[in-house]
């Protein structure tokens, strides 16, 4: 088992940089991704307030202005979404004193999806997103795959590599990236995941929305996990779960706010034809998804198709997280046309487009780059390069600007 307390977090430098020139810095991410540990490590002597503690929460909610006025000039406030009333008081304080780094906040709900929490701090706050541990962070490597891919440097790494095998990859997918789960045996991690999900649904939901039936929300989360990596079809979910469509839409928004579901939008352009516009639904942490799906390591071979879908979500999470320290302006999409031809992850920056396809096999051919070639036709000269990630060990060209790349490069670069 990994000692997750010693693992580096590659966004630390982003937070430290923001504190140098921005009055309010807010680290957002799911519960238990390590936000509290990181912000306290960044500023170990800084006064620290945790709104999960009832005395702090009660005072902050009852008298937000007085609470903020009573704090030191620089302070860390954990779980700020629990007292949304504080945001206006922080704005008033910052307008009086715009010294950089005054407020270091954390939140376990996506404040960008809660306008009432962010509108008062526009132009005064920088948000840094924190995700579960990536495989590169677990390997204590700098996580340079995405940067190397975007820069075209993977072409310089065409070589025969060691054979990791599908079983090791399945182990990585099942483990996920929550630090607390990594410190446990598989059986204990399974128990931790159960209590983690139960705690969020029972306690955290009320901070972001009104939900009358938490059991329905849990059933929807499980259904989305079983379809992780597939197109989101709200009508089918409504029918299969017996939940009114409008309620399903509301529940999905709640799960997004809590970082339990990621919707990957469909790529499109003005001239593109016959494209599917539905987003894909992903569970951000593969360990949580596997738990909700009831998958264990022994299922890896007989359940290869289900693991293939989960592998796609696993790769999307690695890429999304690496983008936070590679270039936060990058945008991620998926591509699918009416013929069913798809690319699992499309990355864009301005007019430039890259594509990545995921294959759960140890050998691939040019046929596996079909989706990337179709994307190239749609994008034209704006297409930069493509990669087919697979479970083999060699990097080699599939087309003039498309490479086959071992999946292990995600964490070994």
Description:
This protein is an alpha/beta fold. Helix content is 42%, strand content 16%. The protein has 18 helices and 14 strands. The protein has a 6-stranded mixed beta sheet with strand order 9-10-11-12-14-13, with helices on both faces. Strand 13 and strand 14 form a beta hairpin. Helix 12 crosses helix 15 and helix 13 crosses helix 14. It is globular. The chain starts with 11 loop residues before the first helix and ends with a helix. The mean pLDDT is 87.
In short:
The protein is of the alpha/beta class.
Defining traits:
413 residues; alpha/beta; 6-stranded mixed sheet; 5-stranded parallel sheet; 16% strand; globular
Distance between the termini: 22 Å
What overall form do the CA principal axes indicate? globular
Helix content: 40-55%
On the 0 to 100 scale, the average pLDDT is: 87
Strand order of the largest sheet: 9-10-11-12-14-13
Main β-sheet: number of strands, strand sense, barrel status?
6 strands, mixed
Oligomer: single chain
What is the CA-atom radius of gyration, in angstroms?
Answer: 22 Å
Total number of helices? 18
The class by helix and strand makeup works out as alpha/beta
- Extended strand count: 14
> Spans of 5+ residues with little confidence (pLDDT < 50)?
none
Provide the β-strand percentage band: 15-25%
Record the SSE blueprint.
Layout (H helix, E strand, L loop, with lengths): L11 H10 L2 E5 L6 H8 L5 E3 L3 H9 L1 H6 L5 E4 L7 H11 L6 E5 L7 H4 L6 E5 L5 H4 L6 H7 L14 H10 L3 H4 L3 H23 L5 H13 L3 E2 L2 H8 L3 H13 L4 E3 L15 E3 L3 H8 L10 H23 L4 E6 L5 E8 L2 E7 L11 H10 L3 E8 L5 E4 L2 E5 L2 H4 L1
Parallel strand pairs: 1-4, 1-5, 2-3, 3-4, 11-12, 12-14
Antiparallel strand pairs: 6-8, 7-8, 9-10, 10-11, 13-14
Helix pairs in contact: 9-15, 12-15, 13-14
């Amino acid at each position: 088992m990994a000692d997750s307390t010693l693992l580096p977090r590659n966004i630390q430098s982003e937070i430290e940089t923001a504190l140098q020139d921005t009055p309010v810095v807010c680290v957002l991410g799911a519960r238990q991704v390590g936000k509290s540990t990181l912000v306290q490590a960044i500023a170990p002597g800084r006064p620290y307030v945790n709104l999960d503690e009832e005395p702090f929460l009660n005072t902050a909610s009852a008298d937000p202005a007085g609470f903020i006025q009573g704090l030191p000039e620089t302070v860390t406030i954990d779980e700020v979404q629990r007292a949304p009333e504080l945001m206006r008081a922080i704005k008033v304080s910052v307008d009086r004193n715009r010294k950089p780094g005054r407020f270091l906040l954390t939140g376990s709900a996506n404040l960008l999806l809660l306008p009432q929490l962010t509108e008062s701090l526009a132009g005064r706050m920088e948000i840094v997103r924190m995700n579960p541990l990536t495989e590169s962070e677990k390997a204590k490597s700098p996580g340079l795959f995405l940067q190397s891919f975007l820069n075209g440097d993977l072409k310089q790494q065409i070589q025969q590599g060691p054979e990791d095998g599908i079983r090791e990859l399945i182990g990585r997918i099942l483990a996920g990236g929550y630090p607390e789960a990594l410190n446990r045996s598989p059986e204990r991690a399974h128990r931790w995941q159960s209590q983690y999900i139960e705690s969020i649904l029972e306690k955290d939901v009320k901070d972001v929305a009104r939900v009358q039936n938490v059991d329905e929300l849990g059933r929807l989360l499980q259904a989305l996990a079983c379809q992780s990596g597939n197109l989101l079809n709200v009508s089918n979910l409504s029918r299969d779960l017996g939940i009114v469509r409008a309620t399903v839409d509301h529940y999905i928004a709640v799960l997004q706010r809590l970082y339990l579901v990621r919707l990957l939008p469909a790529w499109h352009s003005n001239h593109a034809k016959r494209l599917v516009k539905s987003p894909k639904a992903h569970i951000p942490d593969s360990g949580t998804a596997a738990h909700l799906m009831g998958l264990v390591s022994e299922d890896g071979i007989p359940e290869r198709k289900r693991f293939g879908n989960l592998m796609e979500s696993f790769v999307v999470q690695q890429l999304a997280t690496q983008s936070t320290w590679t270039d936060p302006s990058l945008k991620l999409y998926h591509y699918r046309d009416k013929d069913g031809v798809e690319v699992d992850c499309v990355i864009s920056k301005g007019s430039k487009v890259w594509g990545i396809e995921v294959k759960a096999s140890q050998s691939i051919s040019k046929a596996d780059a079909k989706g990337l070639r179709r994307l190239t036709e749609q994008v034209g000269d704006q297409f930069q390069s493509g990669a087919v990630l697979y479970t083999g060990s060699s990097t080699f060209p599939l087309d003039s600007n498309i490479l086959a790349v071992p999946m292990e490069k995600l964490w070994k670069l």
